[in-house]
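Revision sheet: structure tokens.
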Amino acid sequence: MGKTELHFIPRSFKAQDYIDFLREKAIPDLTRLYPHKCRPPILLQDGEGFHTAKKVQKFLSESVLQSIAPWPSHSPDLNWQENVWEMLMQGVRKRNPTTFDGLKEVMEDEWEHIPLSHIRNCVRSMPTRLRQVIERRGRQTDD
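Predicted:
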């Protein structure tokens, strides 16, 4: 029903940091955008260390989120988020920020300007992508 806020995750993120982030930012954001009370919001996670920590898994099992993990982290064929990330980065590269604060500002601005219709198209493409990956026995798709 919309876009989440853009969040910047430090490299030093640990399991408890992730739980705090989920509780304080992600869950409120996702429940706001996922109005279907009959189904929980879905969280895609890759194999990042703090995603797989036991205490994170315990927290998720007790939360309102439905977690789909593991999910391939660097497979644009199976991860619509990678395609949205590429849209964001194309805009950032055009503007070429030179400082970290400038990068954050440009990323936030570019994020706001990605049309929701583009993101929805990425999500809607998933059944076709999944079918192609199955037909090709895991090989890359045309998209």
